[in-house]
Amino acid sequence: MKLSAQEEYGLRCLLQVARRAPGGSATIPEIAEAEGLSPHNVARYLATLRRSGLVDSERGQHGGYSLARPASRIAVAEVVAALGGPLYDPTFCDHFTGAEESCCHTPVDCSIRGLWMRVQEAVDGVLSRTSLQDLLDAAHGVEASRAEEPGALLQVESP
Question: What is the value of pTM for the model shown?
Answer without folding.
Answer: 0.77
